[in-house]
Each structure stands twice: as structure tokens, then as C-alpha cells.
Amino acid sequence: TRPEQRGLQYQLVQNALVFKPPMRLPGNIYLGGGAEHGEIDLKDALQSLVAFARVYAASHRVSRTHTLARIEELADQGVLDRSARAEIGDAYDTLMRLRLATQVADLRAGRTPTSRIELADLSRTRQELMRQAFAQIAELQKRADDDFPEAAGA
Hints:
Helix content: 55-70%
Largest sheet: 2 strands, antiparallel
Number of strands: 4
Structural class: mainly alpha
Mean pLDDT: 84
Strand content: 5-15%
Shape: elongated
Distance between the termini: 19 Å
């Protein structure tokens, strides 16, 4: 790896690790750590998935630019297994749909659209989908930490 690639890789891994999924064992969402005043920023959660796809795409010469296309190609190369591909796609879709729904609701209410949601406002089904998405993010962050210790440990 060339020095400039290591610098980019370092930054991408750092970006993948910034968001701390608000999870507690045995996997329940809690308000603390990654959430302020009962809110969670979905943009930050999505950034972890995007950065993960970028760092692995750069490491494995994937030229595709959309996050899900990168994940698909990484799975085709055997870097990710088929179940990981599906779970990452589900997490990305869940968070993106919820983010867009939040922004549409903000616009309809005459507010500036944001990516922040109140956990208490979500149905149990949506909370469960978010829990699964956060569990996937935590798993990907562990993998990035294991695969890129020089960048993750900083």
C-alpha cells in the first residue's frame, strides 16, 4: 500500500468507527452514548455503512460508487459472504427509509428536514429494525477494527 493510500484508508476506517451504535447487551437500544435527549442521528449511522463499503472497496479495487453496489461487488469477490451482503443491504435500506420518512414528515410539518429521530416516536417494529441495523453496524465496525488495527486503534 502506498503512503497516500494508507492515509486514505486510515481516514475511511476512522469514519466507519465514529458512530457508536446505542446498544446494550443483550442487544437493546438505549439512550446514551450515541443518542442525545432521546434522539438518534440516522445520517451518522448511515455514514458508518458508507465508510465501511468505501474502505473495503478501496482495499479490493472495487470501482463501483454506490454503497450497495460496492457491497454487492465485495460479496461477488468473496470478501463478504452472501448473508453479510443481505444484512448490510437490509441495514442500509432500513436506515435510509427511516431517514427519508423523517425528512418528509419534517417538510410536511413546515420544519427544516433533519436526520434526527426520537426513539420514543418509533413503533416497536421500527425499533426492532433499528436494533438489527445497529447490530449490523457494530459487527462491521468490529471487522474493520480487526482488519485495519493500525487505523482503528488510533
